[in-house]
């Protein structure tokens, strides 16, 4: 694997191998000395054209734990704000010797353009592109599910038969797309729940079931309920009922979470709109894995950088 652009590119074996490698990286993160010398002398550039907290910081931490040199570059405050193109920006980074480029961009497909362009000879990692994909988020979500469900016997395991309900703004969610491809590759059964205006028409060709009724979906006692952020910045009023109506019909509130089995996981990729798609009680409940997901994100990103840049597999 030269780049990580989409979870659709991962075979079942390669996905399991990445999750297993992340287990090794989690062991490193738990040590007193958290560093590995593996990527000493390599340069990782975090190229963020869109805002981020979790992904940007965890890629930076992951690269540092592998002893790489790291440059984090935000479009704000760079020459991109003076109109510099993706081509010129990436060629500038190539001239500085970047070995890996982690890119977040508002345009769906921007990481693929960079990987296919020949502008830069570096491994490209998609850190979220428009409404398309966010593969490391899906990997850290799968890692979190596997760890909760299989515990210390996780290594080598997939997610066969695990029932996952993904709820909310599917239309604009790159997290949903990456999760649908990865979870189905790993054998999970996925149900999408959303108002009709927040479901892409293409879901009829996806390996998922679809529902518009959250209470019906929750009554099937799923293993995982993954709530998605309402992406107000990407939609207009036609998509969205009202906050109150949305919350009433599709929000995971305290009553709904209390009806779930005690071992049902409540996931959210963050950032959360508390009180809209998820109540504070649900977000902070014992079922919630929100902070575990963040912590596991470092291990997954270490695994991805290690895999792409260490030269151990190409
Ligand atoms: N989940 C996620 O991608 O969060 P950030 O936007 O903070 O990186």
TrEMBL record:
The entry's keywords: Pyrimidine biosynthesis, Transferase
Binding-site positions, carbamoyl phosphate: 54-55, 104, 134, 137, 270-271
EC number, as in UniProt: 2.1.3.2
InterPro entries, per database record: Asp/Orn_carbamoyltranf_P-bd (IPR006132), Asp/Orn_carbamoylTrfase (IPR006130), Asp/Orn_carbamoylTrfase_sf (IPR036901), Asp_carbamoyltransf (IPR002082), Asp_carbamoyltransf_Asp/Orn-bd (IPR006131)
Aspartate/ornithine carbamoyltransferase Asp/Orn-binding domain segment(s): 160-307
Binding-site positions, L-aspartate: 82, 174, 229
Stretches assigned to coiled coil: none
Annotated catalysed reactions: carbamoyl phosphate + L-aspartate = N-carbamoyl-L-aspartate + phosphate + H(+)
Source organism superkingdom: Bacteria
Pathway: Pyrimidine metabolism; UMP biosynthesis via de novo pathway; (S)-dihydroorotate from bicarbonate: step 2/3
Domain Aspartate/ornithine carbamoyltransferase carbamoyl-P binding, residue spans: 2-146
HAMAP family per UniProt: Asp_carb_tr
NCBIfam families according to UniProt: asp_carb_tr (TIGR00670), PRK00856.1 (NF002032)
Function noted in UniProt: Catalyzes the condensation of carbamoyl phosphate and aspartate to form carbamoyl aspartate and inorganic phosphate, the committed step in the de novo pyrimidine nucleotide biosynthesis pathway.
Subunit (UniProt): Heterododecamer (2C3:3R2) of six catalytic PyrB chains organized as two trimers (C3), and six regulatory PyrI chains organized as three dimers (R2).
Record protein name field: Aspartate carbamoyltransferase
Biological source species: Antiquaquibacter oligotrophicus
Gene, per the UniProt record: pyrB
């Amino acid at each position: 694997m030269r780049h990580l652009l989409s979870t659709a590119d991962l075979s079942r074996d390669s996905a399991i191998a990445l999750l297993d490698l992340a287990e090794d990286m989690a062991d490193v993160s738990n040590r007193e000395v958290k560093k590995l010398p593996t990527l000493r002398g390599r340069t990782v550039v975090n190229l963020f054209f869109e805002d981020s907290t979790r992904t940007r910081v965890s890629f930076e931490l992951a690269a540092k734990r592998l002893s790489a040199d790291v440059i984090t570059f935000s479009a704000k405050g760079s020459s991109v704000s003076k109109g510099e193109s993706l081509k010129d920006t990436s060629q500038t980074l190539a001239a500085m010797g970047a070995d890996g480029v982690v890119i977040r961009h508002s345009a769906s497909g921007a990481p693929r353009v960079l990987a296919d362009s020949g502008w830069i000879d570096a491994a490209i990692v998609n850190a979220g592109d428009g409404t398309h994909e966010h593969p490391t988020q899906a990997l850290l979500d799968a890692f979190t599910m596997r760890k909760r469900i299989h515990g210390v016997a996780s290594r080598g395991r997939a997610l066969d038969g695990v029932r996952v309900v993904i709820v909310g703004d599917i239309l604009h969610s790159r997290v949903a797309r990456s999760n649908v491809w990865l979870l189905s590759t790993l054998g999970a059964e996925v149900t999408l729940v959303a108002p009709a205006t927040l479901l892409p028409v293409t879901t009829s060709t996806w390996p998922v079931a679809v529902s518009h009724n959250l209470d019906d979906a929750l009554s099937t006692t799923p293993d995982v309920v993954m709530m998605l952020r309402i992406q107000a910045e990407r939609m207009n009023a036609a998509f969205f009922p009202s906050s109150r109506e949305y919350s009433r019909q599709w929000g995971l509130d305290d009553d709904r979470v209390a009806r779930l089995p005690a071992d049902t996981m409540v996931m959210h990729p963050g950032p959360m709109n508390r009180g809209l798609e998820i109540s504070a009680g649900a977000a902070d409940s014992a079922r919630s894995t929100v902070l575990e997901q963040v912590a596991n994100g470092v291990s997954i990103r270490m695994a991805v950088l290690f895999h792409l840049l260490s030269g151990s597999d190409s």
